[in-house]
Design a protein that fits this description.
Beta-Lactamase, 5-stranded antiparallel beta sheet, 19 helices, alpha+beta, 25% strand
């Protein structure tokens, strides 16, 4: 093909000036050695600043990768053009430091035909367009696409593993996506048409409402949240909570709604059961003839039962958050309010007895109790006001009667004490007169000695009875004496020393063991009286055929209660004899032996008045054991 020269040829200097100013890199290489015949500044950014006209490419393009240099050589040899896109080259150093960044170029290698036909190629024309910004944008877009796919996969995994049915629906109500949980729940095959089947699975009583609400939400571009019943794979309808939000891309209207279906059947049934339970409890509270109320954590009352309003004659609004306090007697309101505030602060149970005003204006005694309850709903107070007016009046009546009986008992004790004291002197006078009569007078009666003995015995019994009566009253009064820590060994020794004459007369032997419980917190006078009566009885009722042996032993029970045991080998007692109870006043087991029947009565009365008790075990003809269980004062 013959070349036609241009009728208006451009001077070479003009062409070079244009090529030097264009934003693309241009260079020409001449001959097989590839000598640079032309290069502009843009191409120097590719080949390096050492690339100058007249120099060989191999001498000044050391920064070019080896593969690019090899491609340039092969293009020259083959005469075939080559184009590559976004070829990366190291960016020039910044402030003498290599940043490792790359610049991207679209390269074109075009062979230059020789003037003579025997030389196929005379050089190469190099074009380079800087596409760094476009390539970096493309790479960023690629990374974003990868990240989007990764997030989409993660989101799909999350939506398909959560125990919920997730879905996406468009503006026309067509389901674009449903998670596998929908198929598991409904039992529908994966090939089923979701848009056609879903409405049919909604309970007939809920279907129209749900379809309308969903359409209104899509039309208004808003989300929704409602509950309805959906048929499960086993045919049961289960309550579901459907929530969805629109996908917004302002200023456009939303085109998709994304949401989830959560089964709330159990929670709904539990809430219904709780509602029924609360209704039943409220009905029960309203049926009880007692003031029942609840209060918040701060102590403000938020509920009154119906009986409270009936009793007070006030409405719930009139009662207010402190209603029961305002119903109290004016003289008791301040104290009760302080106590209530302390209970709220400390959490301690509130309990007190106060007078509360009824609707007719009368004040009646009530026991007010309130306890704290902490559950999943938080802290609350539950209180009651129980009418105890009748019990209070009964208590007052009983207290009055008790006080009267106590006074009568005290007066009786005083009378008995005074009578026994006053009668002892006439008895002593009679004994004196009788002694004088025996000394100075004689009787011509064969039964004189017997009669005198009978009179003497009667006077002795009278004196003993008066003495025991006085001792009984004295012991009763001594029960109020203060207690102290007593040394049992020392006190028993004092009692036995006082009974030495009787012991020597009987030739009695004593065994004392108090090491297990050597001390006792008790009244000294009471303890002396108890021990004295038991030991003197053991001496009095000794068996005539053997030497008396009396054992006194103290010890502690497994619970730590102190015990005193007094054992003898005397006549013993018949404990089955209902005609002669052991501890009854003036009742005697052995009428043939001198006595008044007061000693054991005193023992039992002293011990039981201090909270203890006495046990007795006895065998007729063998002996008796008294076991005293003390109860020490706190």
């Amino acid at each position: 093909m013959q070349r036609v020269p241009s009728p208006y040829p451009m001077p070479p200097q003009h062409l070079h000036a244009i090529l030097r100013r264009i934003p693309a890199g241009v260079a020409t290489l001449q001959g097989p050695e590839l000598r640079i015949s032309f290069v502009n500044a843009a191409m120097q950014a590719v080949l390096g600043q050492e690339a100058q006209e007249g120099r060989l490419l191999a001498e000044c393009a050391s920064q070019l990768p080896a593969d690019l240099r090899e491609v340039i050589r092969q293009v020259y040899q083959s005469g075939q053009p080559f184009v590559t896109k976004a070829y990366g080259l190291p960016a020039p150093p910044t402030d003498g430091e290599d940043t490792g960044a790359l610049r991207y170029f679209d390269l074109a290698l075009e062979p230059v035909q020789a003037e003579r036909e025997e030389e196929a190629v005379s050089g190469l024309l190099l074009f380079a367009v800087d596409v760094t910004a476009q390539e970096e944008a493309r790479q960023q877009a690629h990374q974003l696409a990868l990240e989007t796919r990764r997030l989409d996969a993660r989101l799909r995994v999350l939506t398909e593993t959560v125990p919920q049915i997730t879905f996406s629906v468009d503006a026309q109500g067509h389901y674009e996506y449903v998670s596998p949980q929908w198929y598991y729940f409904t039992g529908q095959p994966p090939i089923a048409a979701v848009n056609a089947i879903w409405p049919l699975l909604i309970h007939p009583d809920d279907r129209l409402r749900i379809l309308y609400q969903a359409e209104q939400a899509r039309r208004n571009g808003t989300g929704w949240s409602y509950e309805y019943r959906l048929r499960r794979h086993d045919g049961q309808y289960r309550w579901m909570l459907s929530r969805a939000l629109p996908e917004l891309h302002a200023p456009n209207e939303p085109v998709y709604w994304h949401g989830a279906l959560t089964e709330v059947h159990d929670q709904r049934e539990l809430a219904e059961a709780l509602r029924r339970g609360e209704a039943e409890l409220r009905f029960l509270a309203d049926s009880i003839p007692e003031l029942i109320w609840t209060a918040t954590t701060e102590g403000f009352i938020d509920y009154y039962n119906r009986y409270t309003t009936d009793y007070s004659g006030l409405t719930i609004e009139e009662l207010g958050p402190t209603g029961w306090v305002s119903l109290l007697h004016p003289t008791e309101q301040a104290e009760a309010a302080r106590y209530w505030v302390q209970s709220i602060a400390s959490g301690q149970t509130f309990e007190g007895e106060y007078r509360m005003r009824r609707h007719d204006g009368s004040y009646r005694w009530h026991i007010i109790r309130a306890r704290q309850l902490v559950d999943e709903r938080g802290l609350r107070w539950f209180g009651t006001c129980t009418d105890v007016q009748d019990q209070h009046l009964l208590h007052q009546t009983l207290q009055t009667q008790y006080d009267e009986l106590a006074r009568a008992h005290h007066d009786l004790d005083t009378f008995v004490y005074a009578a026994s004291h006053d009668l002892r002197q006439p008895a002593l006078n009679l004994r004196g007169l009788f002694e004088e009569l025996r000394r100075s007078a004689t009787f011509a009666d064969p039964d004189e000695a017997h009669l005198l003995a009978m009179v003497d015995e009667a006077l002795g019994q009278l004196d003993t009875t008066l003495h025991d009566l006085a001792a009984t009253v004295h012991a009763q009064r001594a029960q109020q004496e203060p207690v102290e820590i007593l040394d049992l060994a020392l006190l028993l020794e004092e009692v036995l020393l006082g009974l030495r004459p009787q012991a020597q007369l009987r030739q009695a032997q004593f065994e004392v063991e108090v090491e297990a419980a050597p001390g006792l917190l008790y009244s000294r006078a009471n303890l002396r009286s108890v021990v004295h009566n038991l030991v003197s009885n053991a001496l009095k009722f000794a068996h005539p055929d053997r030497q008396p042996l009396i054992s006194l032993r103290s010890y502690l029970t497994a619970a730590g209660q102190p015990v005193l045991e007094v054992q003898d080998n005397g006549l013993g007692m018949n404990l089955t004899n209902s005609q002669a109870p052991v501890f009854q006043l003036f009742v005697r087991q052995h009428p043939t032996i001198e006595g008044t029947g007061v000693g054991l009565y005193l023992v039992q009365r002293i011990v039981t008045s201090q909270g203890g008790h006495v046990e007795v075990a006895s065998t007729v003809g063998e002996g008796t054991t008294f076991t005293i269980y003390w109860t020490q004062p706190a």
